[in-house]
Fold this sequence. Notes:
Blueprint (H helix, E strand, L loop, with lengths): L2 H6 L20 E7 L3 E7 L5 E8 L5 H21 L4 E8 L2 E3 L4 E4 L6 E3 L1 H9 L2 E6 H12 L7 E7 L3 E7 L2 E2 L31 H4 L1 H12 L5 H10 L2 H25 L3 E5 L7 H14 L7 E4 L6 H13 L3 H6 L3
Parallel strand pairs: 1-4, 4-8, 9-12, 12-13
Antiparallel strand pairs: 1-2, 2-3, 5-6, 6-7, 9-10, 10-11
Helix pairs in contact: 2-3, 4-10, 6-8, 7-8, 8-9
Amino acid sequence: xxxxxxxxxxxxxxxxxxxxxxxxxxxxxxxxxxxxxxxxxxxxxxxxxxxxxxxxxxxxxxxxxxxxxxxxxxxxxxxxxxxxxxxxxxxxxxxxxxxxxxxxxxxxxxxxxxxxxxxxxxxxxxxxxxxxxxxxxxxxxxxxxxxxxxxxxxxxxxxxxxxxxxxxxxxxxxxxxxxxxxxxxxxxxxxxxxxxxxxxxxxxxxxxxxxxxxxxxxxxxxxxxxxxxxxxxxxxxxxxxxxxxxxxxxxxxxxxxxxxxxxxxxxxxxxxxxxxxxxxxxxxxxxxxxxxxxxxxxxxxxxxxxxxxxxxxxxxxxxxxxxxxxxxxxxxxxxxx
Length: 337
């Protein structure tokens, strides 16, 4: 079999799949997967919006085929577990970084993942026999925060994912915006320096090249010859290491420039930070609030907060989309209460 042709032809038209709307016990369960640049996380999510049977595997970066197979293996394993528990999964929701065509379920490309017009939803539907919904990761997280988390009381907010890369999504009127090409809110690829380093998106000097976890680790290595993960560099910031502190200040300033532009265009009231770097908490929020106060002059600067759902935001957003895809809109709305 030519695996590449089978897995990656994006095709067009209606996808055919067996849809199990309600399991025998009447309580729907879905498989939720969140694909990041470092880890692929998976869980089962039921009517109580609590992820169970959580698993994670390292994200393969050798090839597109290896990445797809890792996602499929995790998905099938969780679907099998749900079956053995007597609560068959009614659908699958996938959250992933990259340029995502959510209508066709195709991962077009990504600066940090091996997507190449990958028909991921179709492939997983063929493997699982269930409806698969594919979402951009920041939009999935924003959807979850709007229903269950820090965005419940905000009509208009920006979700920013600070992880391997920098992702973003806009929520307006309580709903995530797609934009014309599924790119609304992607502040990670705002160009801040046209002479800056080449980004995985093909541009130069993007926010992601300064403010992501990957950038913090890379820039510390460039400055000191020591290759440390971003979390370790943040620990050095807390300890007062001058190199780490300077690089963190650069990252915060770059974020402030990008967010000030977003405020001017979108008039948002709130920015929610998710992803591994959001664990910096006040180390991020306090200096960023100070910089934004100096840059945003036409209206009050937006409130800043860390995602209430933590690392579960992408999973829960994927779960919500999966439930809606098979007619459980009312259940998702009930999560707000």
